[in-house]
Specification:
256 residues, alpha/beta, Rossmann fold, 7-stranded parallel sheet, globular
Length: 256
Amino acid sequence: MELGLQGKVVVITGGTSGIGKAGALAFAEEGCRVAVCGQNPEKLANVKREFSQRGFECIAEAVDVVNHNALLRFAGDIVNQWGRIDIWVNNAGIYPNKPIIAMDEAEWDNVMNVNLKSVFFGCKIAALHMKDRDGGVILNASSFTALVPSVGSGAYGATKAAILNLTRTLAAELAPSKIRVNAYIPGMIRTEMTKEVIAKKGPQLTEQIALNRLGDPEDIAGGLVFLASDAARYMTGTYLEMSGGKLCVQNSRAAW
């Protein structure tokens, strides 16, 4: 199948580890030029080195995604070097585990800013660079908690549910500019962000999954490539769930 990704310029926020990094490598393997941002200098250096060793083009910059001007400069650097932006993946996020009423205002605001406001900024900046060209694709990271909320991560789930709503609205607003907007919903994936909860409840979490295993970042990367490709050209305003069949039935373990 022709994916139509060769030579495309891809931007991934939070692209130095986990799902973001796996997605960056998957796009690069399809012939894309990939730019990632993060805030950890060591991780940024590692990404640059790994891409170089594999012969892939990569821009990796330290960016605070909650800072609109910083994100705008990052996009500008990409356009100055590569001439355009075709695909923008809003992947950056944090996963606090704390009951809603136990959070103080600063903690609440931080979750809203990193997980939701950064997506608002990213979508605006991506659209700015895509709408006067031949369009493009914007992908937004949601979560299974947007479908089934979890006790202890209510603030996180609220941002991810809001992202689904924002994605649908933007898909309609940006359709005349030939920009597709979709969300992706990972299940429980082994990343730095989830290692604490997996350490505590790994077997319990696995029992909820029809495929009887937790996911790896590479399990999500292929879905990102698909959503951004010509193979998904009639998909917009929707989401792709990649959860291994989490809670698709009440008793997943019964089949095993």
